[in-house]
Specification:
Blueprint lengths: L1 H17 L11 E11 L4 H12 L7 E9 L4 E6 L13 E3 L9 H14 L2 E9 L8 E4 L2 E5 L2 E4 L4 E3 L1 H15 L3 E7 L6 H4 L6 E6 L11 H10 L5 H15 L1 E3 L2 E2 L3 E6 L3 H17 L5 H9 L9 E3 H11 L6 H14 E6 L10 E3 L4 H11 L3 H6 L1 H8 L11
Helix pairs in contact: 3-4, 6-7, 8-11, 8-14, 9-10, 10-11
């Protein structure tokens, strides 16, 4: 009888192993689970080891889980790691706790699945979700040899020729928040150009604090050990406090710190203040649309003189508003501009920039100054939640429509 039970138990264990199910019990509830969706299925793969080794300088603790889904183009693998502390700066030693098979990291459902699995196995009171990869704000076209695959947005996967669009990223956060039974405490993009109203607007109802950079990020990305260390030391840190530490340490890392001297930006939004900002933006858009056609050239000048970034039609909103305030545009009230500026400042929880980006205030919006650029992306912009709520696309369209005899901006 005992031998039969032992044999049955061995058989069940073998079946479970063959099907990739996990027999381990879930970890006890901790304060924080930090999740990294690390998409190395592209030319950034060489930096993945650097960032993972930085995480291992800190490692998980009795109150903080650090969990990574690591897809590597070089290794042709996708692994889930539970990050543990080590003293080896050149080799990733954290244990592989699950092998999900080769995963398409440009498919938003796989981000949701990673978080679902992590919640079951490494539950916490608070969740910080980090998408690691290329990013291009809410849009950027790219083409492979056999045609245009649309907009890059974030999490470009060269292996599967896929990416997570802005709307899909918002859908992922919505599904994750429902699954967690609470808003995601922090969503962050370790990627370029993501600190945009258009991106944050897709997750306004499912995320509390949003982290991103207005400008491109250097390949080294985030200095993980520099903000995870303080979190492990003080796991009672709030989402707002952690976002401030993150931005401060990011700037320090590129201001003579661990990554030398490079010009960078990093900001965070408190999405609890989104509603007031969105309402103020809608009022501003309405006045721009109603302004006399003769005033439109002044609006374009105000946009052109605001801080721009690698994608030139991404502009700093507060800088644009300051330019609009001094342009004295008929029909656009100073009070409307002031209200929008105040609401944008309340939205931006922290803004850390190098000296050359002193005109950056933390929040970018789409601001093309040519009809050609606007027309190229008009259909993709139209369904964004931010545009639907504020009619910003309509304001842009009218701003870029010249009066008869003036011709069109190119």
């Amino acid at each position: 009888m005992g031998r039969n039970l032992s044999f049955l138990g061995l058989a069940i264990a073998l079946i479970i192993g063959l099907h990739g199910f996990e027999a381990k019990a879930a970890e006890p509830l901790k304060e924080w689970t930090f999740l990294v969706f690390l998409n190395g299925h592209n030319d950034l793969d060489d930096f993945s080891d650097l960032n993972l080794n930085a995480m291992e300088q800190v490692g998980s603790s009795d109150q903080v889980n650090i969990v990574v889904q690591w897809a590597s183009l070089r290794a042709n693998t996708t692994k889930r790691l539970y990050v543990t502390k080590d003293t080896n700066p050149t080799r990733v030693t954290s244990p592989v706790v699950h092998n999900p098979g080769l995963v398409d990291m440009g498919k938003y459902q796989n981000l949701v699945e990673f978080v679902r699995w992590a919640k079951e196995n490494y539950p916490a009171k608070h969740y910080f979700i980090d998408v690691w990869n290329h990013g291009t704000g809410w849009r950027k076209r790219f083409a492979y040899l056999k045609g245009d695959f649309g907009a890059k947005d974030i999490s470009l996967d060269d292996r599967f020729h896929s990416q997570i669009t802005t709307m899909e990223l918002g859908l992922a956060m919505s599904e994750i928040a429902t699954m967690l039974g609470q808003k995601v405490d922090i969503y962050g993009s370790d990627a370029c150009l993501m600190a945009m109203a258009e991106v944050a607007g897709e997750m306004k109802d499912s995320v509390r604090v949003f982290i991103g950079s207005q400008e491109v990020e250097p390949g080294e990305g985030w200095p993980y050990e520099k903000f995870l260390g303080p979190l492990v030391a003080n796991p009672m840190m709030t989402a707002e406090e952690l976002a401030v530490v993150h931005a401060r340490e990011y700037l320090a890392a590129y201001s003579g710190g661990v990554f030398g001297e490079q010009e960078v930006t990093m900001s965070a939004f408190n999405l609890e203040n989104w509603e007031a900002y969105e309402k103020a933006m809608a009022a501003f858009s309405a006045e721009l649309k109603a302004a006399p056609p003769a005033e439109r050239a002044k609006m374009i000048t105000a946009a052109n003189n605001a801080q721009g970034y690698y994608v030139s039609d991404y502009r700093d909103l507060i800088g644009f508003l300051d330019n609009m305030a001094t342009a004295n545009i008929t029909g656009v009230n100073a009070a409307t501009i002031s209200t929008l500026r105040s609401s944008a400042e309340a939205l931006v929880l922290t803004n850390q920039v190098s000296d050359s980006y002193s005109a950056s205030h933390g929040l970018s919006v789409w601001m093309p100054t040519s009809r050609y650029t606007y027309t190229a992306y008009e259909s993709k912009y139209a369904p964004l939640a931010f545009n639907k709520a504020t009619a910003w696309g309509d304001a842009l369209k009218l701003m870029l429509t010249r009066t008869a005899g003036e011709g069109q901006t190119e």
